[in-house]
Structures are given as structure tokens and as C-alpha cells.
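Tutorial handout. Part one gives the primary structure; part two gives the three-dimensional structure as C-alpha cells.
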Amino acid sequence: MKHISIKLGFYFLVCVTFIEAVLFALLYFSLVNTRVDEEVSSLLARGNSHSDVLEKYFDPQTIMHVALMESEAETKVVITAEDGKILAKSNNVDTAMEEHLAKDMGSVPEKGMVIENHWKTSNYICTVSPIQVQGETKGYVYMFLGTDSIEKMIERLTHQFLVIAAITFLLTVVTMFLLSRSLTQPLIRMKKATERMSKGDLSVSLNIKSNDEVGELAHSIQTLANDLNYMKKERSEFLASVAHELRTPLTYVRGYADIAMRDTLSLEERNTYLTIIKDEADHVTGLVQDLFELAQMEKHNFIIEKQETDLYDFLEKIVTKVQLAYEDKQIRILLSCPKDIVVSIDQKRFEQVIINLLDNAYFHSQLSSIISITVKSSQSSIQIVIQDQGEGIPPEDLPHIFERFYRVDKSRTRATGGSGLGLAIVKEIVEFHGGTIAATSQVGKGSVFTITLREQ
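Part two.
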């Protein structure tokens, strides 16, 4: 990862350089061929111009005038008769020119033709234009251009291309590595962040705002860090809560066991202390069972065995079961449920949910109050609403009541009742049924828990 910007820049550079080299080569050869073709066309046009003049005035004076015109130019002209005899020339005729003059032209078109255009293998490019007077060919105008001038022109063009190519390459190098650095910088930051996370430092803040795949990856890592940080705090709080919940009953068990072992105790006193020890042991057993159920839920080993259930009969049996236990506070349970609603639930697990909510309402309700269970049915869902007239839940605590070991009473005394796991288990069971649970509350007026199940 340390050199990823260099590697990425190098790969980009190789690819871009290859593409640029191909394009430069195509452009270079295209320009060279175009320039050579332009020179050949210009040479042929110049020869045709001379032949046009000579066709009008084919006399020795005009012939010598044409030859004289070309004597100071880069091009050379040779005017011959129809039989090949040289009538005039602008410069001395060398061997290479004689070879072209000796070629059998055959029938030369009226617009002339190119005799030689291979500038790499010949000393001259050459064209010939016929001189026709009254439809009869009287001679020919040969135009020559030395290929050394073309080579110089191509050398200049090549030099310009090399300079431009070098500048383009340097700009490409700088641009590629700047771009690769800007692309890999977020990746390097994310790599460092994950290294810190692996060492236990979860205080990660990436602040990468790009709306692309890199931004999405950064957001995922940031979310992971936040979740891990939250889980770390949760685990610490969880372990502290478990230790607290176990320490209290175990302290009772140990203390009263020491007392019960005294020989001076009467049978009645010993039975009293043994009863306390049993109650505390039952409390520990319940706590361990709750923890086991939560662990099963987290591992997705929690089995829900649904069956079609008449909701009214199901709730009525629960109300009958708990009503007697609530009479010591003179609390009544009112059930309002249509008799034709059938739901698919795990009866054992869902009974645990309802009883847990009812016990929670009972514990926080005043004397002679009412707990109501109301069932509402719509086309898409069924709602089970459990409402009490208790002390209510403060607004700052309401969002946290389904968290493990969370209690509104922060003192965590035995008087607060329960282990703080009940509502967490209720939420998990309801969600395993594909439903949701929500709570609303007003301090001093009571709380409302609403379970929503999808219609079967």
C-alpha cells in the first residue's frame, strides 16, 4: 500500500504512453505522406503550368525563358522534343536525371503524370507533362525536385514531433502521478484507519465525502468503526452489568449460607435463611437462562416453532394465569380482542413476551390501577397494545429501554426488580416473529407498548 500511488501511476503511464506513441506514429506518418504528396502534386502542377505556356508559344525563345525561370528555384526543368532530344534545361543533367529521361513514358496523359515519387530510394521525385500543339505532342516538360530537400523537411518535422512528444511525456508523467496520488490518498488513509482499528483504536474519523465507490468504502469503514466502538462499549457495560447482577445474589447466598451453618440457630431461623438462599439461587438461574436465550438469539440458534393460534383464547389464558398474582396490588387486567383473529406464533415464546410486558406494567403500576390489553386488526397487520397507568418512563430513557441491562433507575438496587434483560428478550422474540415493538410513555400517566405483527 505504501507504493500504491507509484504503482498505479506507473501502470497508467505505461498505458497512456503506449496509446500516445501509437497516435503520434499514425499522425507522424500521415503528415509525412501528406507533405510528400503535396510536394509531388505541386511539382506536377508546376510542370503542367510550363507545358500550358509552351503549348501556346512553342518557340526557342519561350523554351529558354521557361528554363531560365527554373534556374534559381529548388526545382529543375528539362524540356525535350518528342524524340527525347533535350531542347532546354535549367541545370546540368546528372546521371539520376538521365535515367528518368531515358524511361519509355508510353502515352503520357494530358494532365501529366508522376514518374518517380519514392523519396527514400531515389535522388529525385520527377513528373512529366506533355506539350501538345493542335492535338499533336511536340515535346515534354520534365520537372525534378531533389529528395534531399524533402529529407530536410522531414527532419524538421521529426524534430518538432520529438520535442512535442517529450513535452507530452513529461506532462503525462506529472499528471498521472498527481492523479494516482489523489486517487490513492483516500485508500492510504483508510488503510491506516483499519490498522488503528486492528490495534483497538476505534476513534476513526475519515471525513471522505466523495460520491463514488471510494466514498462508499470510506463510509462503510467509518460505519464499521462506529459499530465496533459501540459494541466495545456495549461489551464493557454488558460485562459490568453481568458482574453486578451475579455479585449481589451470590453475596446473599454466601452470607446467608455462613449464617445458616451456625449451630446456635433454631430450625425456624435456618429455614428462613435457606429460603433466602433458594430465592437468590433462583434469581441467578433466571439470569443465566436469560443470558443463554440472548446468546442463542445472537447465534441464530433460537428456534421459533410457529403454529396457527386463536389470539383471543391465547391472551385470555395468560390473563387468567397472572390475574391472581396481581391481586395484592388490586390491579385489574382488561382484555379487548376480537374473537376471530388467528395468528401464526410460537405460543411458548410469545407467552413469554406478553407475561414479561404485563409483569413490567404490574411492577411500575400504582395500587388499584388498570392494565389493558387491546388488539387491533387491519388488512396488513395486527397490533397488540399493552397499556398501564404507572409511573411512566422519562423521555431521555425511552429510546434505551430495549437495551440489555438498561434500567430507568440507575441505582440498580434489588428494589428496581428484574435483571434488565426482560425487554431486550421481548424485542428479540418479537423480531424473530417478523414483527416490531415500540413504546410510548408520559411520566406520571403510564406507558404503552405496541407489538405489530404482519397479517398472515
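Part three, for discussion. The first strand starts at residue 75 and ends at 81. Confidence is low (pLDDT under 50) at residues 411-416.
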